[in-house]
Amino acid sequence: MTPSLTVLIVSFVALLILGLPVAWSMIAAILAWTLFTDNFYALPVIAERVFQGMDSFVLMAVPLFILAGELVNAGRITERLVSFANALFGWMRGGLAQVNVGASILFAGITGVALGDIAALGRIFIPAMVQQGYSAAYAAAVTASSSIIGPMVPPSLIAVIYGSMTDLSIGALMAATLVPGLLIGAAQMLLIAVQARRQNFPTVEMDRSPRAMTRVTGQAILPLMLPVIILAGMLGGLMTPTEAGAVAALYAALISLVLYRAIRVRDLWPVFGRSALFSGQLLIIVGCGAAFSWVMGMENVPRLIGGQIEGMGLGYVGTMLIFNAVLLVLGMVIDPTTVIILFGPLLSAAAMHAGIDPLHFGVIAILNLNVGLLTPPLGVCLFAAERLAGCGLIPLLRETAPFLLVSLITLAIVAAFPGLSLWLPTLMGF
């Protein structure tokens, strides 16, 4: 590592530890690098890179998908999805835990954000599971673990950001993450089935007559059409990601305002305010991250990483293990969006240099970073679920460990067999 690169990395990490926001830590580190290298000519270029990082038609999809998610939450559509998941999965032993995972899969197809899943579903499932005799820690563990499915099942906000940062087709990336996301959900449901037999978890009693099932399905069909419209439009070449985001926001507004009348026009202002605030915070990080990545490129970091790994002669399996380890560690200590903005282009270029398909690597990166949401010291999904359950972090970690293990096993399977993530994009013609 060169002295100038050391200054860049050390100053960035030190400022983060001191509590400076991510975007300003990146800019301050870039300024420290500029002073150290006397590359003052680069300052106008850095300012331009910040602007160019945000000035992307594809990134316009980000605030639109965020708005769609906020409208869905405000429109109280969650209850309809929970009832539908109950009809599908509640008959099994450990039914309410199974419904929790199933609802996360359905909810993921609408918001695609892990914390959104916990905020919407945790308030419903954690008290209900405790009332049925599950421990608060187990209820929180199921809720936190199933929430990582959200960023894998389209429409995925993190896939939009990864695709825009690495110049990958966002439609292809969303298609590639779908099967691994469903595999994570299936693995967690299988684990619950095993635990349910051992601990004699209860089933969920409800009317499952044809008439009742038809009614529940009818109530859920309109919200469930949202991901179908988005995927059909993007994968069929009818809409760009940005246009899909606009359609998603308009559709969510129509069903919440007009059809269900769950919100009123005057209730839209807080929804727009939250969406604008979150979008602004995210896009500032994206812009500063683009400048930081440019400086890292000036220091030849992608070639450095790729050359180091290639020089080890580890082959495909060994190389993939190294990348998985790096991504898992990064996901444990840094927010996934920040990792993608900072290191996505660098690691993707290094993976291509090592002979790994860039689309497959994108799936592995997103999956690894989602798993990081369940591991301390960051573990934002753990902390969010613990706050709702009030069960204590240590009991929650103990109950989460089996779910973390099956998620890691699924990750290893997806990493070892690229066809699991690549067959659907290939089928769709990407």
From TrEMBL:
Keywords: Cell inner membrane, Cell membrane, Membrane, Transmembrane, Transmembrane helix, Transport. The keyword Transmembrane helix applies. The chain crosses the membrane at residues 7-36, 56-74, 81-99, 105-126, 138-162, 168-195, 216-238, 244-263, 275-294, 314-334, 339-356, 362-383, 403-424. Residues 9-420 form the TRAP C4-dicarboxylate transport system permease DctM subunit domain. It holds the Pfam family DctM. It is found in: Cell inner membrane. The keyword Membrane applies. Part of the tripartite ATP-independent periplasmic (TRAP) transport system. Belongs to the TRAP transporter large permease family. The complex comprises the extracytoplasmic solute receptor protein and the two transmembrane proteins. This is TRAP transporter large permease protein. It comes from Psychromarinibacter halotolerans.
